[in-house]
Design brief:
heterodimer, A: alpha+beta, six-stranded mixed β-barrel, 22 strands, 55% helix, 17% strand, B: alpha/beta, Rossmann fold, six-stranded mixed sheet, four-stranded antiparallel sheet, 10 helices, 39% helix
């Protein structure tokens, strides 16, 4: 056995180059997988641990009666809407027997403003809450300075302080629901031991400032400390007897908070893991190809061994040990790189705007074990298959036969692939026709179909592209096209990896562009105002309500109207409810009423967004934080004001304010007077610039920028495209190098009969380009079809129509082909430098 | 065929050369090829001077490791000499860079190898025309027809190498070597992989190319029967030219070869 290990090691070292590439592929995929696992683990683990630590002293939480299920889509923190508590709730809680302490929590919007600009961007929300004096109940800990005591004093979380470069004693401003406030930072706090609460930027206020700044009378929740020695269960039972309130057990509360903080990650995790799987697949392909060739080249040797009496397992064992050797070393390297590369991945993920990791990554043994098992397992498995095939060959045949792969493509294989493909296409069509996503599962069969049809596709590509290649690149072209079909199975497996990579990118690109377009349609068609003031954070209201009045006071402004938005529960679901001025809005944004009259909103009615005029005259019940509104439906409109979470219901602004308290404005529409002075827009712009949390856009700009939140997602896709190309690059480089090795005699012949080095390089590059082109275009085509069917079936109202981003797909194709050519550059260069004789004699 | 430009050099190198020098298709002058360095260096060619006459069929024979293949490779511009000079016609190969050497091989030399003779992905016709298409030329129809009919390949032109027998493949290779009308054709054991009858056939084609078109051919072989088809046999032993025999017969060649073994 040890002798076998030694000989395997010797054999690996003897063909360093090939195994270096294989090893690199394994290491890279393991690194990607490990980094993904560690990152998602860490983000989840960190957030969960921070929350658990911060809330450790809270035995129970008293909160408003829950009105509906938390909403929550991709990238959304799960939220629920609760009825507000009574102002006397704290006294009532303290009065309960067995309660040692109760800390009311007022939570609202507060954005830190330093030097005229707001601090922090991305998906984290800006939260203002009161400082809790009881250290057992306070989730925050003072890191430096003093707690806030007077109105105008604040404490901010450490990550805000770091971002803004603010220290205790600095004077800043805070934008809240009641406008802009001057404030002095008295201290810096941490959330338990983390720099910030997960997905939040927190400004902590003294209790005295709560009513004036956050505009809330009653607390959002009351944190309860149960007295030592008291029976917790009994205290909880007594608390739950309180009217108009619900009590949540401390551990349950922690779990809810943890889920809320980590749910935006689910989507990201799936996405990252999908890429990791593709990375592994590419890695496996490379290993498989390499070992197939290694085994083939050693066929004679193993034939000889078998002829003189070695058993199958000897032949097989050598290869498997060799694979284990390469796999283990590469996996170790990959694990180290992966853990070290978590920061790089965190940066890429940060492009989405989701950044959750508040501390160093947590490397759990499970992540490492999974990555290691996959790395080593995949290597051994993909070496074992060709090795078994070799060992099964009768010795005499192994001695006699040449090493080349048969050129013929198995008909049965192609046929079964075609059957699967037909089933997949039929499944997609059924899904679209019946609007039933279940059929989509059948459409997934396109992946195995492609695997099975791969060699046939490659052969066909070679045949079809040959005339074109010949026309454009002469005899080099037809040689390159022909080479593609020389080992169809190997070419196909390389192509598959590339195909999967481009397919993933394509799917997400289509998803993003359809979403963007869906979000933008209403704005494109409805917006009539000259200027639009938008919130600093999309879909969160951050505009100082005073701004609309200030703009209205400008001389050349004809009309101004603001739009606010709040959450309410309609039929058990959390929905965004818009508050508008029903007389002013229609001239600036046409909601396109198809029934009823918007003007009737002022008498307490509600307008619904939809396409069914028959809803007019019905009644709608909306449960808000402070009250329940039961309103007649006075209008049905066909559009909303655009955006990710555009309201599906509109009420009068006054009604909304009365139901949820004062809100910041979400958007302000501005119409300039006809013949307004040229600098009228500049005047508005100056006012907006002085109001943090607001941005000014012209009509065209606003139409163009809707859906910009998805642009962040686009960045992430681009980052992934780069990673996918990098791994695919290895695949192409590997296949090219292998193909060159196998065909060195032929290449030598070409050189001997007069092909220049350049011509040789050209052939190799062309071959890679053809393969990449075929793979990428099939990947893009299949993903376009599948993505189209999927969005069409599951898109719903958010994505009403499928938009294929042709330009981006074209760029993807170009990048994939360019990556292929770049990957082939080094093997091409090497082979062109080799002495002709070495090539001819096959001595390399 | 241009006469050799530097007859002074030639005269220094003995009588074997002088008679043919003015009419050589290819020539080696003081050729030395050494592999390795220092004490372990092995001289595959040790000061060889020889001319391969134009319009003649020359066979190069010698035991394994005698340097006969090295001699051919260096004369054909596939390998470079350690010292000395190699000429194709009047061109001194040592003055050419890789690109010029490649162009020379493409335009003035034909090759027939023992194996790896054809590009598998091209048809027989494409393989035959390969040296021409590589330089962006088209074969003249006459020449192609002539070569194709000489080698009786008319009905095989559209086939790919994998659809041809070994003998047919080698005929395609010979056609490729001849079609550009090169100054000299080098053949490295062209019959080594063929059965006797097919081998004889190939040798017959080479012979008739010399007789009918005055093609110059240099063939490396270890088979006395193959060598007997040549106008002249050059015997190489230990990197030296041991003997030269004109108008050889198989028996005479065999006698010399037996002598070499001793």
């Amino acid at each position: 056995m040890s002798q076998m290990v030694r000989s395997a090691a010797r054999s690996v070292f003897a063909s360093r180059g090939r195994f270096l590439l294989t090893g690199a592929a394994v290491a890279l995929s393991v690194a990607f997988l490990a980094a993904t696992l560690v990152l998602t683990d860490s983000m989840r683990g960190r957030a969960a641990a921070d929350i658990a630590e911060a809330l450790a002293g809270t035995d129970a939480v008293v909160q408003g009666v829950e009105l509906g299920e938390p909403g929550g889509g991709p990238g959304d923190p799960a939220r629920s809407v609760q009825r507000s508590l009574g102002p006397d709730i704290t006294e009532r809680v303290v009065a309960v027997d067995g309660v040692a302490g109760a800390a009311p929590q007022w939570v609202g919007f507060a954005k830190l403003v330093v030097d005229g600009s707001s601090v922090g961007t991305g998906t984290a929300s800006d939260v203002g809450r009161n400082w809790v004096d009881d250290p057992a109940l306070n989730p925050f800990r003072l890191a430096s300075g003093q707690p806030p005591t007077e109105v105008g004093e604040i404490v901010i979380d450490r990550s805000l302080a770091d971002n803004a470069g603010v220290a205790a004693g600095d004077v800043v401003r805070v934008l809240t629901a009641t406008g802009m406030h001057d404030a002095t930072v008295t201290g810096i706090a941490t959330f338990a031991s983390a720099n910030a609460a997960p997905l939040q930027r927190t400004v902590l206020l003294p209790d005295a400032a709560v009513s004036a700044w956050l505009d809330t009378e009653a607390p959002t929740e009351v944190l309860v400390d149960v007295a030592e020695g008291a029976d917790r269960t009994e205290v909880l039972a007594r608390l739950s007897a309180l009217s108009d309130a619900e009590v949540v057990d401390g551990p349950d509360h922690i779990r809810t908070m943890q889920d809320a903080a980590t749910s935006p990650l689910q989507f990201l995790n799936v996405f990252l893991l999908a890429f990791a799987v593709v990375a592994i697949l590419i890695g496996v392909t490379i290993i498989f190809n390499t070992f197939t060739l290694t085994v083939a080249r050693r066929r004679r040797e193993s034939g000889l061994l078998r002829a003189i009496g070695a058993e199958r397992r000897h032949v097989l064992g050598g290869v498997v040990i060799e694979a284990a050797f390469v796999g283990t070393i590469a996996t170790l390297v990959g694990l180290v790189c992966g853990v070290a590369g978590v920061d790089a991945l965190r940066w890429v993920v940060g492009l989405t705007g989701i950044s959750l990791l508040t501390g160093p990554p947590i490397v759990s043994p499970t992540s490492i074990a999974i990555a290691a098992a996959v790395g080593i397992g995949a290597t051994i498995l993909s070496a074992w298959i060709p090795a078994r095939r070799a060992a099964a060959t009768p010795p005499i045949e192994a001695l006699r036969e040449s090493a080349a792969e048969p050129r013929a493509v198995s008909r049965a294989r192609t046929a079964s692939g075609l059957v699967l493909a037909a089933a997949a296409i039929a499944g997609g069509a059924m899904a679209v026709v019946n609007s039933n996503p279940v059929w989509l599962t059948l459409a997934v069969a396109i992946v195995p179909a492609l695997v099975l049809c791969g060699p046939a596709i490659v052969t066909a590509t070679a045949r079809w592209s040959s005339p074109a290649a010949r026309r454009t690149a002469g005899v080099s072209g037809s040689i390159a096209a022909g080479n593609l079909a020389a080992s169809p199975r190997r070419s196909a497996s390389t192509a598959l990896a590339l195909m999967l990579g481009t397919a993933m990118v394509t799917m997400f690109a289509i998803f993003a562009s359809s979403l963007t377009s869906g979000v933008g349609t209403d704005v494109r068609e409805g917006l009539e105002a000259d200027l639009v003031v938008t919130s600093a954070t999309p879909d969160v209201s951050t505009i100082d309500p005073a701004l609309a009045d200030r703009i209205a006071a400008l001389p050349d402004v004809e009309a101004v109207t603001a739009l606010s938005s709040a959450e309410g529960i309609v039929a058990g679901k959390a929905e965004a409810i818009g508050g508008i001025d029903p007389t002013a809005l229609p001239t600036m944004f046409d909601l396109d009423p198809i029934a009823g009259d918007l003007a009737d909103l002022s008498s307490g009615g509600v307008a619904v967004v939809g396409d069914d005029p028959a809803r007019l005259g019905g009644t709608l019940e909306i449960e808000f934080e402070r009250s329940t509104v039961e309103a007649p439906i006075v209008a049905v409109v066909s559009r909303s004001i655009g955006g990710f979470e555009a309201p599906l219901y509109f009420v009068d602004a006054a009604t909304l304010d009365a139901s949820v308290g004062r809100q910041l404005d979400a958007q302000v529409f501005v119409d300039l007077a006809d013949g307004a002075a040229a600098d009228a827009e500049e005047d508005v712009s100056a006012l907006v610039r002085d109001t943090p949390g607001s941005f000014l856009a012209t009509q065209e700009e606003h139409v163009a920028s809707r859906g910009s939140e998805i642009a962040a997602f686009g960045n992430f896709i681009d980052g992934m495209l780069v990673l996918a190309s990098l791994i695919a690059l290895l695949g192409v480089a590997n296949t090219t190098a292998l193909a060159i090795n196998e065909r060195s005699g032929e290449l030598g012949l070409l050189r001997a009969v007069g092909a220049t080095r350049r011509a040789l390089r050209r052939i190799v590059r062309l071959e890679a380009a053809l393969l990449s082109f075929a793979a990428a275009s099939i990947g893009i085509a299949v993903a376009t079809g599948f993505g189209w069917a999927m969005i069409d079936v599951t898109g719903g109202t958010e994505i009403p129509s499928v938009v294929v981003p042709w330009l981006r797909l074209a760029v993807t194709l170009v990048i994939a082909v360019a990556a292929g050519v770049v990957a082939a550059a080094w093997p091409a260069f090497r082979v062109s430098r080799m002495p002709v004789l070495d090539l001819v004699s096959g001595d390399r | 065929m241009s006469p050799h430009p530097d007859s002074a050099v030639v005269d220094q190198h003995g009588s074997a050369l002088s008679s043919d020098a003015d009419d050589a298709a290819a020539m080696l002058v003081g050729a030395v090829k050494r592999y390795g360095a220092g004490e372990s260096a092995v001289a595959a060619l040790d000061d060889v001077t020889i001319a391969f006459p134009a319009g003649k069929f020359t066979a190069v024979m010698g035991p394994s490791g005698s340097g006969k293949s090295t001699m051919m490779h260096c004369a054909a511009g596939l390998d470079r000499l350690t010292s000395g000079r190699a000429f194709v016609g009047s061109t001194d190969l040592s003055t050419l860079d890789d690109r010029e050497l490649t162009l020379l091989r493409r335009e003035r030399i034909g090759f027939v190898f023992q194996t790896f003779n054809l590009v598998q992905t091209l048809t027989a016709e494409e393989n035959i025309c390969l040296p021409l298409t590589l330089s962006g030329r088209r074969p003249s129809g006459d020449v192609l027809d002539q070569v194709v009919s000489l080698l009786r390949l008319g009905d095989r032109l559209r086939h790919r190498p994998s659809e041809l027998s070994g003998g047919q493949q080698q005929r395609v290779a010979v056609a490729r070597a001849l079609v550009a009308r090169p100054q000299v054709v080098f053949a490295d054991e062209p019959t080594g992989n063929l059965d006797t009858r097919t081998g004889q056939e190939i040798l017959g084609f080479l012979r008739s190319a010399v007789d009918e078109d005055h093609q110059s051919i240099v063939m490396v072989t270890h088979d006395p029967n193959a060598a007997a088809w040549a106008d002249r046999v050059v015997f190489v032993v230990d990197g030296h030219v041991h003997d030269v025999m004109d108008r050889p017969s198989a028996d005479a060649v065999l006698d010399v070869v037996k002598g070499l073994g001793r």
